[in-house]
Write a structure and sequence with these properties.
Helix content: 40-55%
Distance between the termini: 91 Å
Radius of gyration: 41 Å
Number of helices: 35
Strand order of the largest sheet: 4-11-10-9-8-6-7
Shape: elongated
Oligomer: single chain
Strand content: 5-15%
């Protein structure tokens, strides 16, 4: 079409609208553009739908107009006789364009019906065109098929040209047809047909493909909804003299079709945002972003034009351009309007009295008058908005819907600037050159302003500010991954999965530790997870290891994801989390603690506290468990006295069942009861007080012995037994004072030489009082401790001085090494040793052999003459895998919930074998709560019988351990809810992997005190706890190291000259790297 004919059309249109006067300026450009691309032909369909309730029609019609135009283009391309034009790239580009349009249209139509039909009608179905027809507001259907002029022309063109095509050209056309028919599969989920399926089958038949079989169903009234013949008129109403003219017009017209859809999506997004439906508004905005990105790819179709032919056409198009598209011109402004609901929401969430100075206020009016005050107010408003946005970016879980909307605006901005404007600039530079001018005499370079100017500058400023702040905050991690790669490359291990030689090593996969329960997490991904392995199990750099590394790189393991989720703050209410964060910050400030965020901490280091590597998990509790427990405790407090029923009937039994499970017993195991107390010292002292009874030293009664008789756990020096009735209640007063007994002999105790202060102090006081006689077994070397302990018991029995009590720590508090990796074996060995003292001269090497030898000799002492065995598991429980097994009926296991369970102070437990009916001298009312029964007397008469409830025998007064028990129960529930369920075994392997990572990087730190020379040798995994210990030259040196690290925001602790570095399930590989960096920073200050 020549400019003269175009001008004539414009003159006629203008004369009808304005009395014959031609429009000027932008109106003229718009008129020329719309008439050139034939936009009025299609716009009449969008603006004048044929149905009464046009919910679907406008967008459906606009989308299918774009598809019809693409069919027409393909028909023209197939028929093109120019030999210098490469047809294959052109038709493949348009086929891809059709596929994208089909997918976008399905998404748009379904979402439109979902929201618009359901508005105000709660019973309306939201299944869009996938639901049975008819339904209220549904588009019209008919039984007979419709007609697509574009498909008809394409089929005719292929039939005409196919016989003369080469094999390569024929294959290209067959591929084209396959791609087109496949694109239409997007609509197959609908319960109605399009009405043009028969034409798709005819297209397949034209190239010899078997036709796709479509189900028999009603058809949309394609002809009424789309009026596709109007698209065909864009081809037939003109005589095109330039070979690229129809191509150029049609691409622009298709762009306007989808610009109409995009504007509708943006208007819907704004409306939804104003109503507070942030998630749906975000989905609308994201949908619009995808359409904008498509529009950019669509205009790039024009890069396949013949340059010579287009440049001839360009001369004739002088006077208008794509700038004449009102819809395209409106895109930036419409997108920018989506910030208004966001700003209103942010300003509305600020505290009352905040200076927001909305535009339109007096201050804003003053700005218009130029007095400067309004400008200051607006600047203040922008500052307030930026602070609110920064908080939203840092703490997205506080307002997830609003945060999702903000991120959708970022995607939308990218779709407009990078998806459409930038691609438009690329089109211009590709077709006419970067230094040329377009048909409006506008420089191509001027198009840069379109994509270089942000739509949401405030969001951009916030991202810059937040990035700069976090760059400074995490400067100690800068280049960590890259340094690790260089370190491995320098060591000749690039790509291998072996451990890093330096402190800045990135996360690397490693073999799963053999002891990990449930087959969890064979390996972790490089750079993200943690290696679940210990050093001894790590394989050399082989092909198998490389394959393992590749598998690990697929993603974070399920176990690591579950562990990370457990310690995240996502599962707690934002308000409560904010309160905790504020209180933590205040308390940390008062305590002069330097905050350093741990990996996996709340975004933005919300909890301002140091990164702790202590020998316990206190302070590293799973936030969800803490919140649930405190909420339940608050409810129980409100119920007052009635809450005790919940404590005794539900909370204590639940905790007891969890503890038994963690100790390898069934939750309902009858082998032992679980006794609770405020601390382990209280429980142990009450238990020992049973042996201090002047009438029955060492004669804790054994339930199940002969009637009226009892056997003793240990013998008195004179070999006598103080017989008591089977029932502990009936036995009261069985042996009266004044029977000639001078006083109890000293209680003989065997313990290690490194028990915790509480027990050591108590023993010292008992020794002072003449109530105890103690022997020690050295802890070193730990590997032979069980055998040496059994040998000592055997020797004492053979000498006629058996032990009444054997008290041994499973893991020592000082060196943190496990003395008793196998509790059942030790208990069996001790039992056998106590009854096989005569074998001491030829004692077998280990406890198991000693037990076997004693059993064979038949000389074992009776059960009642055995020592009371107490295993102190405080430093092992919930950290080191423990299985009491058969020993649960032969020993007491005492531990607390503070150390590794991390559930808080003031709660401990002791497992009491069911065969022992303990009657502690030190007791309280709770040991026999029957006093609260309705028929009980109001007071207890002095001199009366003292009864004990089997499950509460070691209790004292009113318990204060309800809150930590609640935390523990909820923590165990979270373990079970995790996918996969968490376990002590799995978390222990995680910690071993962290220790390996730390040890692998320690050499490069070169710290003068914390190094391999001062490290107490890590034992094999079965004897390793969660804490590594360094023995320094002096207490002062140890204190200096602790102080240096604290000044860097990292906490470790010490006992005397031992520095203890503890690792827990809350730690990640990144936390370990932070510790190593802190040690490196402290190294110059270290002293020898």
């Amino acid at each position: 079409m020549h400019v003269s004919s175009l001008q004539a059309n414009c003159d006629a249109a203008a004369a009808g609208a304005a009395g014959g006067k031609l429009p000027m300026g932008r109106a003229r450009v718009r008129l020329l553009y719309e008439e050139y691309v034939h936009l009025p032909l299609l716009r009449q369909v969008w603006e004048g739908p044929s149905t009464e309730k046009p919910v679907l029609e406008p967008l459906f019609a606009a989308g299918f107009h774009g598809i019809e135009l693409a069919f027409l283009l393909l028909a023209e391309f197939v028929s093109d006789s120019r030999r210098y034009v490469a047809k294959r790239p052109r038709v493949e580009l348009v086929a891809d364009d059709i596929d994208m349009q089909c997918r976008l249209l399905t998404e748009v139509v379904d979402a439109e019906l979902e929201e618009e039909l359901a508005e105000g009608e709660g019973t309306t179905s939201r299944l869009s065109l996938t639901q049975p027809f008819p339904f209220e507001g549904c588009p019209p259907t008919k039984a007979e098929p419709g007609h697509s002029p574009g498909l008809h022309r394409l089929t005719q063109a292929i039939q005409a040209k196919l016989p003369g095509m080469s094999t390569a050209e024929r294959n290209s056309v067959i591929k084209l047809v396959i791609n087109i028919t496949s694109a239409f599969s997007s609509f197959q989920r609908w319960t109605v047909g399009l009405g043009i399926e028969h034409q798709l089958q005819a297209l397949q038949a034209a190239v010899g493909l078997p036709p796709t079989q479509y189900p028999r169903r009603p058809n949309l009234d394609y002809d009424s909804l789309v009026r596709p013949w109007l698209c065909e008129q864009t081809l037939t109403c003109e005589t095109y003299t330039n070979k690229e003219d129809f191509f150029f017009r049609t691409v622009h017209l298709g762009t306007d079709c989808w610009a109409f859809v995009a504007l509708a999506r943006l208007a819907s997004a704004r409306q939804l945002a104003q109503a507070g439906s942030w998630h749906v508004a975000a989905a609308r905005a994201t949908q619009a972003a995808r359409i904008l990105d498509y529009m950019g790819s669509h205009v790039l179709l024009l890069t396949s034009m013949s340059l010579r032919d287009y440049l001839e056409l360009k001369v004739e198009l002088e006077g208008t351009s794509g700038e004449g598209s009102v819809q395209v011109k409106a895109l930036r402004g419409t997108v920018a309007q989506l910030r208004e609901p966001l700003e209103q929401a942010l300003l509305g969430s600020l505290p009352a009295g905040a200076d927001t100075a909305h535009p339109g206020s007096t201050d804003s009016a003053a700005a218009d008058e130029g007095d400067g005050e309004g400008l200051t107010a607006e600047a203040g408003r922008q500052e307030v908005l930026q602070r609110a946005l920064m908080a939203l970016y840092e703490f997205p879980d506080h307002s997830p819907g609003l945060y999702n909307y903000v991120r959708a605006l970022e995607v939308l901005e990218t779709g407009l600037l990078g998806g459409f404007y930038y691609k438009h600039y690329c089109l211009a530079t590709n077709v006419i050159g970067s230094e040329a001018r377009g048909t409006m005499r506008r420089a191509v370079q001027a198009l840069k302003a379109g994509y270089e100017t942000p739509v949401f500058p405030l969001l951009d400023a916030c991202r810059v500010a937040l990035g700069a702040r976090l760059d400074a905050e995490f400067a100690h991690r800068k280049g960590r991954i890259m340094q690790g790669i260089l370190a491995r490359a320098a060591a000749g291990q690039a790509g291998a999965a072996s451990g890093p030689p330096g402190i800045a090593a990135a996360a690397q996969p490693a073999k799963q530790h053999a002891g990990q329960a449930g087959g969890q997490a064979a390996a972790a991904p490089a750079g993200s997870g943690c290696p679940f392995a210990h050093a001894a199990a790590r394989p050399p750099a082989t092909g198998d290891t490389a394959a393992l590394g590749a598998a690990a790189a697929d993603g974070i393991t399920r176990f690591e994801a579950a562990r990370h989720k457990l310690y995240s703050w996502e599962g707690v209410p934002p308000a409560w989390r904010a309160e905790v964060a504020a209180e933590v910050a205040q308390q940390a400030k008062q305590l002069s603690l330097l905050a350093r965020p741990a990996d996996g901490a709340p975004p933005g280091a919300e909890l301002a506290k140091p990164l702790a590597f202590l020998d316990h998990a206190w302070g590293q509790l799973a936030p969800a468990a803490q919140h649930r427990a405190w909420r339940e405790a608050a409810a129980l407090f409100q119920l007052g006295n009635s809450a005790w029923q919940a404590v005794f009937s539900r909370i204590l039994p639940q905790a007891a069942a969890h503890i038994k499970s963690l100790l390898g017993l069934g939750p309902d195991s009858p082998a032992c009861s679980v006794q609770f107390g405020g601390n382990t010292h209280e429980l142990v002292l009450r238990l020992l007080s049973s042996l201090l009874d002047t009438r029955q030293l060492g004669s804790l009664t054994q339930a199940g012995s002969g009637a009226g008789q009892s056997s003793r756990l240990s013998s008195c020096p004179d070999g006598s037994t103080a017989g008591l009735p089977e029932s502990s209640v009936d036995s009261v007063g069985a042996t009266a004072p004044g029977d000639g007994t001078v006083g109890p002999p000293a209680m003989r105790v065997l313990a290690s030489d490194c028990e915790f202060y509480s027990f050591s102090r108590q023993l010292n006081r008992l020794i002072e009082a003449g109530l105890a006689e103690v022997e020690e077994v050295p802890c070193e070397p730990p590997a032979t401790f069980p055998e040496r302990c059994c040998a000592t018991v055997a020797a004492a029995a053979a000498a006629g001085r058996p032990f009444d009590v054997v008290y041994v720590s499973q893991t020592t508090f000082l060196s943190q090494r496990t003395l008793v990796p196998d509790i059942p074996a030790l208990v069996s060995g001790l039992r056998s040793a106590a009854g096989a003292g005569h074998l001491k001269q030829s004692a077998p090497h280990d406890a198991a052999q000693l037990a076997d030898a004693a059993a064979e000799s038949g000389d074992a002492r009776q059960a009642g003459e055995q020592p009371l065995i107490i295993i102190d598991g405080y430093h092992s429980f919930c950290a080191v895998p423990t299985n009491l097994g058969d020993a649960a009926n032969d020993c007491c296991y005492v531990a607390g919930l503070l150390k590794h369970a991390g559930c808080g102070a003031n709660c401990a437990f002791l497992t009491l074998p069911a065969r022992l009916a303990a009657r502690p001298v030190l007791t309280g009312w709770l040991a026999d709560p029957s006093i609260l029964a309705p028929d009980s007397p109001a007071t207890l008469p002095l001199g009366g019988q003292v009864g004990y409830s089997p499950n509460l025998a070691l209790q004292g007064g009113t318990p204060a351990y309800v809150l930590p028990l609640l935390v523990f129960n909820h923590l165990m529930q979270l373990w079970r809810e995790s996918s996969p369920p968490l376990s002590v075994e799995g978390l222990h392997d995680h910690v071993l992997g962290l220790q390996d990572r730390f040890l692998a990087g320690l050499g490069a730190v070169r710290h003068p005190q914390i190094n391999a020379a001062t490290l107490l040798p890590p034992e094999e995994p079965a004897r390793r706890s969660h804490t590594l210990v360094f023995r320094l030259p002096s207490t002062a040196a140890a204190a200096a190291v602790v102080k240096e690290l604290a000044a860097l925001g990292v906490l470790v602790d010490k006992r005397g000259d031992h520095v203890r570095v503890g690792f827990g399930p809350d730690h990640s590989c990144a936390d370990v790297d932070t510790l190593l960096v802190a040690l490196g920073a402290a190294a110059p200050a270290g002293t020898g």
